[in-house]
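Holo prediction. Input below; ligand is zinc ion.
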Amino acid sequence: MNRNPVLPSLTLSTEPKALRSVDLLVSQTYSGHGFLALDALPRVALEAAVCAADDGFSWAVNTFFDGVVGGEPRLKMNLGLKGQMHLLCQRCMQPCLVEIDESRQFVFLANEALADAFPMENDALEPLVMSAQFDLLGTIEDEILLSLPLIPKHPEGVCQPAALGSGADDSMHQGETIKKPDNPFNILKNMKKKE
Ligand SMILES: [Zn+2]
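Structure of the complex:
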Protein backbone atom coordinates (compact mmCIF):
# COMPACT_ATOMS: atom_id res chain seq x y z
CA MET A 1 0.00 0.00 0.00
CA ASN A 2 1.22 3.46 -0.82
CA ARG A 3 2.04 5.18 2.46
CA ASN A 4 2.86 8.46 0.76
CA PRO A 5 -0.15 9.40 -1.29
CA VAL A 6 0.30 12.52 -3.37
CA LEU A 7 -1.43 15.23 -1.39
CA PRO A 8 -3.02 18.30 -2.91
CA SER A 9 -0.41 21.02 -3.11
CA LEU A 10 -1.24 24.55 -2.00
CA THR A 11 0.31 27.46 -3.83
CA LEU A 12 2.24 29.79 -1.54
CA SER A 13 1.41 33.45 -1.66
CA THR A 14 4.14 35.71 -3.01
CA GLU A 15 3.26 38.38 -0.40
CA PRO A 16 6.10 38.84 2.11
CA LYS A 17 3.57 39.18 4.93
CA ALA A 18 1.87 35.87 4.11
CA LEU A 19 5.28 34.14 4.06
CA ARG A 20 5.73 35.12 7.71
CA SER A 21 3.07 32.61 8.75
CA VAL A 22 2.62 29.35 6.86
CA ASP A 23 0.47 26.62 8.44
CA LEU A 24 2.49 23.40 8.20
CA LEU A 25 0.15 21.38 10.41
CA VAL A 26 -2.36 20.88 7.61
CA SER A 27 -2.10 17.58 5.72
CA GLN A 28 -1.10 19.34 2.56
CA THR A 29 2.05 20.29 0.80
CA TYR A 30 3.07 23.69 -0.52
CA SER A 31 4.81 24.97 -3.57
CA GLY A 32 5.48 28.42 -4.85
CA HIS A 33 7.99 30.92 -6.08
CA GLY A 34 8.42 34.66 -6.09
CA PHE A 35 10.82 37.56 -5.84
CA LEU A 36 11.71 39.51 -2.71
CA ALA A 37 13.22 42.97 -2.98
CA LEU A 38 15.54 44.03 -0.16
CA ASP A 39 12.85 46.14 1.50
CA ALA A 40 10.92 42.90 2.16
CA LEU A 41 14.00 41.40 3.85
CA PRO A 42 14.81 43.76 6.74
CA ARG A 43 17.68 41.74 8.25
CA VAL A 44 19.30 41.28 4.84
CA ALA A 45 18.77 44.96 3.98
CA LEU A 46 20.84 45.91 7.06
CA GLU A 47 23.88 44.39 5.32
CA ALA A 48 23.38 46.26 2.06
CA ALA A 49 25.92 48.94 1.11
CA VAL A 50 23.54 50.39 -1.48
CA CYS A 51 20.35 49.10 -3.05
CA ALA A 52 20.44 48.83 -6.83
CA ALA A 53 17.31 48.36 -8.93
CA ASP A 54 17.99 44.68 -9.63
CA ASP A 55 18.94 43.77 -6.05
CA GLY A 56 16.78 41.12 -4.43
CA PHE A 57 16.26 37.38 -4.36
CA SER A 58 14.09 34.92 -6.25
CA TRP A 59 12.88 32.03 -4.15
CA ALA A 60 11.29 28.69 -4.97
CA VAL A 61 9.85 26.37 -2.35
CA ASN A 62 8.17 23.00 -2.30
CA THR A 63 7.32 20.79 0.64
CA PHE A 64 6.76 17.05 0.52
CA PHE A 65 6.30 14.10 2.84
CA ASP A 66 9.15 11.63 2.91
CA GLY A 67 8.73 8.12 4.27
CA VAL A 68 10.76 6.96 7.27
CA VAL A 69 11.23 3.23 7.86
CA GLY A 70 9.01 2.24 10.80
CA GLY A 71 7.77 5.77 11.38
CA GLU A 72 5.51 8.54 10.23
CA PRO A 73 6.49 10.30 7.00
CA ARG A 74 8.43 13.48 7.66
CA LEU A 75 7.66 16.83 6.13
CA LYS A 76 10.62 18.15 4.13
CA MET A 77 11.15 21.36 2.22
CA ASN A 78 13.30 22.30 -0.76
CA LEU A 79 14.33 25.94 -0.91
CA GLY A 80 16.03 27.50 -3.91
CA LEU A 81 17.45 31.02 -3.69
CA LYS A 82 18.98 33.06 -6.47
CA GLY A 83 19.73 36.74 -6.47
CA GLN A 84 22.10 39.58 -5.81
CA MET A 85 22.83 42.49 -3.51
CA HIS A 86 25.60 45.01 -2.87
CA LEU A 87 27.82 44.62 0.19
CA LEU A 88 30.67 46.88 1.28
CA CYS A 89 33.98 45.68 -0.14
CA GLN A 90 36.32 45.27 2.84
CA ARG A 91 39.34 46.22 0.71
CA CYS A 92 38.23 49.53 -0.84
CA MET A 93 35.03 50.29 1.13
CA GLN A 94 33.00 50.68 -2.06
CA PRO A 95 29.85 48.66 -2.84
CA CYS A 96 30.54 45.34 -4.51
CA LEU A 97 28.06 43.02 -6.18
CA VAL A 98 27.48 39.67 -4.47
CA GLU A 99 25.45 36.97 -6.19
CA ILE A 100 24.07 33.84 -4.62
CA ASP A 101 22.57 30.70 -6.13
CA GLU A 102 21.76 28.18 -3.42
CA SER A 103 19.53 25.22 -2.84
CA ARG A 104 18.84 23.73 0.57
CA GLN A 105 16.73 20.95 1.99
CA PHE A 106 15.07 21.05 5.39
CA VAL A 107 13.26 18.56 7.57
CA PHE A 108 10.51 19.62 9.97
CA LEU A 109 10.58 18.16 13.47
CA ALA A 110 7.88 18.31 16.13
CA ASN A 111 9.70 20.55 18.60
CA GLU A 112 12.85 22.53 19.40
CA ALA A 113 14.45 19.69 21.40
CA LEU A 114 14.15 17.25 18.49
CA ALA A 115 15.48 19.87 16.08
CA ASP A 116 18.47 20.59 18.35
CA ALA A 117 19.21 16.86 18.64
CA PHE A 118 18.93 16.27 14.90
CA PRO A 119 22.24 14.91 13.56
CA MET A 120 23.83 17.41 11.21
CA GLU A 121 25.31 15.06 8.66
CA ASN A 122 27.33 17.08 6.14
CA ASP A 123 24.70 19.83 6.43
CA ALA A 124 22.63 18.18 3.71
CA LEU A 125 19.42 18.33 5.70
CA GLU A 126 18.77 21.22 8.08
CA PRO A 127 16.26 20.79 10.91
CA LEU A 128 13.41 23.24 11.47
CA VAL A 129 10.54 23.20 13.95
CA MET A 130 7.05 22.30 12.74
CA SER A 131 4.56 25.09 13.28
CA ALA A 132 1.11 26.29 12.37
CA GLN A 133 2.75 29.70 11.87
CA PHE A 134 6.04 28.79 10.24
CA ASP A 135 8.09 31.89 9.36
CA LEU A 136 9.19 31.04 5.83
CA LEU A 137 10.31 34.61 5.19
CA GLY A 138 12.56 34.45 8.26
CA THR A 139 14.04 31.16 7.02
CA ILE A 140 14.68 32.72 3.59
CA GLU A 141 16.44 35.63 5.32
CA ASP A 142 18.53 33.24 7.44
CA GLU A 143 19.65 31.32 4.36
CA ILE A 144 20.54 34.48 2.42
CA LEU A 145 22.58 35.76 5.39
CA LEU A 146 24.35 32.39 5.70
CA SER A 147 25.15 32.45 1.97
CA LEU A 148 26.75 35.90 1.99
CA PRO A 149 30.55 36.09 2.22
CA LEU A 150 31.86 36.95 5.70
CA ILE A 151 34.42 39.35 4.20
CA PRO A 152 32.97 40.65 0.93
CA LYS A 153 35.56 41.87 -1.57
CA HIS A 154 35.68 42.87 -5.20
CA PRO A 155 37.53 40.42 -7.41
CA GLU A 156 41.31 41.07 -7.37
CA GLY A 157 42.18 44.26 -9.28
CA VAL A 158 38.65 45.64 -9.47
CA CYS A 159 38.77 47.85 -6.37
CA GLN A 160 38.57 51.59 -6.78
CA PRO A 161 42.18 52.89 -6.67
CA ALA A 162 41.07 56.31 -5.36
CA ALA A 163 39.63 54.79 -2.21
CA LEU A 164 42.74 52.69 -1.56
CA GLY A 165 44.91 55.82 -1.24
CA SER A 166 48.02 56.26 -3.40
CA GLY A 167 51.58 56.40 -2.06
CA ALA A 168 51.89 60.07 -3.00
CA ASP A 169 48.79 60.89 -1.00
CA ASP A 170 50.16 59.11 2.06
CA SER A 171 53.41 61.07 1.99
CA MET A 172 51.46 64.33 2.02
CA HIS A 173 49.82 63.28 5.25
CA GLN A 174 52.93 62.12 7.04
CA GLY A 175 52.66 64.94 9.57
CA GLU A 176 49.36 63.59 10.83
CA THR A 177 49.46 61.08 13.64
CA ILE A 178 46.75 58.72 12.42
CA LYS A 179 45.02 58.85 9.07
CA LYS A 180 41.42 57.85 9.69
CA PRO A 181 39.83 55.65 7.05
CA ASP A 182 37.00 57.36 5.21
CA ASN A 183 33.62 56.69 6.73
CA PRO A 184 31.84 54.31 4.30
CA PHE A 185 28.59 56.20 4.75
CA ASN A 186 30.23 59.43 3.60
CA ILE A 187 31.61 57.59 0.56
CA LEU A 188 28.13 56.37 -0.26
CA LYS A 189 26.70 59.84 0.21
CA ASN A 190 29.29 61.25 -2.19
CA MET A 191 28.60 58.47 -4.70
CA LYS A 192 24.90 59.23 -4.63
CA LYS A 193 25.59 62.92 -5.28
CA LYS A 194 27.58 62.05 -8.38
CA GLU A 195 24.80 59.92 -9.83
ZN1 LIG B 1 36.85 46.75 -3.51
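Strands lie at 9-11, 29-37, 56-68, 71-88, 95-109, 125-129. That is the main takeaway for now.
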